[in-house]
Amino acid sequence: MKYKGEKCSACGNIFTDNDDVVVCPDCGSPHHRQCYANSGRCANHERHGEKFRWKSEIPEKKSEKSAESSTLVTCTECGASIQINESTCPFCGAESKHEKPADNMSVKDKTFLMFYGVRPDSKMGELTVEEMMSFVKQNSFYYYHLFRRFSDSLGKISFNFMCFVFPPMYFATRRMWGWAAVTTLLSVLLTVPLMLVYMADITLTDDTMRLLSNSAASFIAQNREIFLTAVNICNVVDFVMRMVLCLFGNWMYYIFTVKSIKRIRQEKSKSPLTAGDLRTQGGLLIRNALVIVIVTFVFTAAAMFFMKEIMDIII
Fold first, then answer.
1. How many whole angstroms separate alpha carbon 201 and alpha carbon 191?
2. Comparing C-alpha atoms, which of 71, 74, 83 is closest to residue 116?
3. Residue 179 CB burial class (10 angstroms; 0-12, 13-18, ≥19)
4. 127 forms bridges with which residues in the sheet?
5. Would you tell me which CATH number, out of the four given (3.40.1000, 3.30.1050, 3.30.70, 3.30.40), belongs to the domain 1-60?
6. So where are the chain's domains?
7. Within 10 A of 196 (CB to CB), how many other CB atoms are there?
8. Which segments of the chain have a pLDDT < 70?
9. What is the pLDDT of residues 14-49, one digit of tens each?
10. Residues 8/15, Cβ–Cβ less than 8 Å
11. Is 22 strand, coil or helix?
12. What is the DSSP pairing of strand 81-83 with strand 127-128?
């Protein structure tokens, strides 16, 4: 019955399934039929002039199904937002593996379930999702899906545009200093033939700029076609290097993240490892971009100096 649990406006008793209920046509107040007949009018008749409308005293509750269907989670395969009660993702067709949030879950557990579709202590390889995402910090949602695929051995190839445009800057901002140094050195070495041609042209055309000795500059000018061929070869090698880093840069970051967290674990073996410990040593550090630009400039200047010395010795 619609009014089950409500109170009769006249006698105040609670309605049951067996009660015969009548409703005031003016204000909607429910009464026992007998109560209404005894008084001959609505119990709230005096309030009709106030445009009174009866309201239920029982709080409106969403059904469990309705509340559940309004909850959005993220598909663990394609990243689309889907209803938590969907058995499969309507976008990619993947089976939904989300655990439904319980009322007694912590805020952190519910946040991870809503954002990543898993609990923070869920395993991703040897590590937990919370450890991995705490270390990554920025763009963690993007990296979660990549790292999940890498940890499940579903392929190592993805696309990292920054690794194609300026690999040293990506590695430096992600604190991968080893790879930042290697890619910077390779990038500088691959520009050596072009720098030699440039230095020779400047030396022969501008008397105020003696970047090379006259003999070295003349030698390069006489063998210009050979040096330009070397420039083209180095450009091809540079392009191939950038493409490889573009396709495997994210996987390299995944390996770096795993090794870094294991190292931090060992360093914190005598005390509990917290998300704060991981965030401090991980994440994106923008100021490292300026550092790597300066390092690249220093490497280039050093390369020009040593090329001049070597060319003077050889020629």
1. 15
2. 74
3. buried
4. 124
5. 3.30.40
6. 1-60, 64-151, 161-314
7. 23
8. 1, 59-87, 90-92, 96-111, 113-115
9. 888 888 888 888 888 888 888 888 888 888 888 887
10. yes
11. strand
12. unpaired
